Amino acid sequence: xxxxxxxxxxxxxxxxxxxxxxxxxxxxxxxxxxxxxxxxxxxxxxxxxxxxxxxxxxxxxxxxxxxxxxxxxxxxxxxxxxxxxxxxxxxxxxxxxxxxxxxxxxxxxxxxxxxxxxxxxxxxxxxxxxxxxxxxxxxxxxxxxxxxxxxxxxxxxxxxxxxxxxxxxxxxxxxxxxxxxxxxxxxxxxxxxxxxxxxxxxxxxxxxxxxxxxxxxxxxxxxxxxxxxxxxxxxxxxxxxxxxxxxxxxxxxxxxxxxxxxxxxxxxxxxxxxxxxxxxxxxxxxxxxxxxxxxxxxxxxxxxxxxxxxxxxxxxxxxxxxxxxxxxxxxxxxxxxxxxxxxxxxxxxxxxxxxxxxxxxxxxxxxxxxxxxxxxxxxxxxxxxxxxxxxxxxxxxxxxxxxxxxxxxxxxxxxxxxxxxxxxxxxxxxxxxxxxxxxxxxxxxxxxxxxxxxxxxxx
Length: 459
Prior knowledge:
This protein is α/β, with parallel strands linked by helices. Among the domains are: 4-152, no CATH class; 181-283 and 374-394 and 426-441, no CATH class. Helices cover 32% and strands 21% of the residues. Strands 1-2-5-4-3-7 form a six-stranded antiparallel beta barrel. The two termini are 57 Å apart.
């Protein structure tokens, strides 16, 4: 493990000196060097029982002069008396004053022979030397990685590299714990700030993570259901000569890796024509949709949702077809009677699922020969086995996109609840016959639809 002296030697020469410090801001005075907002600096400190390194990020800086003269006077002299100005050597008088915040400090522990990162509850000593982290020098990045090891971790999904000013430190990867994917993640920002690039890096990190770990019940794979409203993650920048997205990553896999991490598909689309292998047509069935799913994406009054739930309890998975076919009669069974206006309002709200108006939802009515046409069971199997699924929604309407998200999420949560209620949710050690059997039932080539096996439950 590197000591404080070894790290300082890898960072030399000195960039500046700490001038003022408080719990909210540090001020550093440095020579006339090139500085960018966001640059990282390290401050070695020997105050206290253990050596420390403070990590400082610049948030603003200003040009100053060493002498107590005004910059405006120097500018006027240069304008009116250029010869006399240049005759006077002011190179040593030009300084830079940096201000910023301390991100925290790494403290050396003799017992464990390691650096542990802590929140900024302490301050460095007076007139501490300041060293700049230069992305052009790999030794600087190695020093930062050593100091931030406990903060960044050594395992997890790589989501990028630590930014030092305008450039990343390629030797300091930033990782996200796999367990973080079990929580909601939001990426917000204005157009062009890098949201899509961050998601693409995250997807690549998930694929790398799944590829590196062994397939066993003791290790955790990651699954992602990525909604792609611009159809960009599959090919990324291949059209302009750049990286080839998920398709290029999958193309580099061996047959065994494809069977373990990709098959039967990684790409779902609303287009009928598929461009390559491991792609499938995204489709749900009316039998997959419940009244509560629609209540999540549409505005229903209390009477309207009560009518939809009663209709679902009466007709089961055929309730949407019965409603859209106009076969609803308040008198055919005892129960609460609803006004014709309520029935018509629910029917209007479900109009986006009528045949010919949707590319997502297929009809379901066994009496008319319309069987179960849905890819939902395959999606659930894929996500439970650790897959990255990219869903092209360019041809789907807004309500269809929301419905797809809602149905998949609700089905997954219901599946997880069922597993928690089971006495033995996982097979005994070494017994993977059930998993192999389920995988063997997947189609060898994606067909875009999955028919429920005979005898299987419809919900």
